[in-house]
Amino acid sequence: MSSDRLVIAIDGPSGSGKSTTSKGVAKTLGLAYLDTGAMYRAIACAYLDAGVDPSDTQAVIAATLGAKLEISTDPEVEKVVVNGVEVTERIRQPEISAKVSAVSTIAECRQDLVARQRAIIEGAASGIIAEGRDITTVVAPDADVRILLTADPEIRMARRKVDLGGAIDSAQLADQVLRRDRDDSKLVNFTTAADGVTGLDCSDLTLAETIAAVLDLVAATR
Ligand code: DC
Predict the structure, then answer these.
(1) Is the Cβ atom of 101 under 6 angstroms away from ligand 1?
(2) Does the reported pTM lie above 0.70?
(3) 132: Cβ below 6 Å to ligand 1?
(4) Which of 29, 57, 66, 110 ranks highest by number of CB atoms within 10 Å?
């Protein structure tokens, strides 16, 4: 490992359990936590509030570059503010899940968010765990520990349904999990582990077992 400051990168498809696992690991190790998906979701709020049509690429880019974004990196505190408006709960709504790919499939938007994410990671004095789709490969390819967390599609859809309190029909669920992954994987590969990235399939693992498996991988680097 490069220094005492630990950086962990976790990627994976929707519903693989990245967020819950990462938060658990951050709390255990006293690290900051960055949910990069929340940043893409906050930008979706910003372009929608600006009255931008998702098909208007240039306007989505302008809304992204102009957005003032604040995100908590305390694993105990979920808070996202965009252009002065708190969107912590709104970013989880199905409307945002359905519209966020308009941001994540535009290369210019990704470049802007990647730069913001790198700045947050560099600024985390005592280390950080960052999760998303391109953290192990693009945002923090030099991270001390890099993991691709996967799970079977049926299990991911079931987990996403539980996250949403069961209030979703199967067509919406398939849209949120399978269609979004298909769209998002056009610009980023998060289906196979890149060189140096450890694949971790948590289909048959409980949350506690998944956190323990990540902690084992961290321990192996120290
Ligand atoms: O993980 P999530 O469902 O909150 O992510 C929201 C969207 O942002 C999803 O469509 C994937 C995309 N995303 C991305 O393209 N790259 C990231 N690093 C994080 C999320």
Answers:
(1) yes
(2) yes
(3) yes
(4) 110
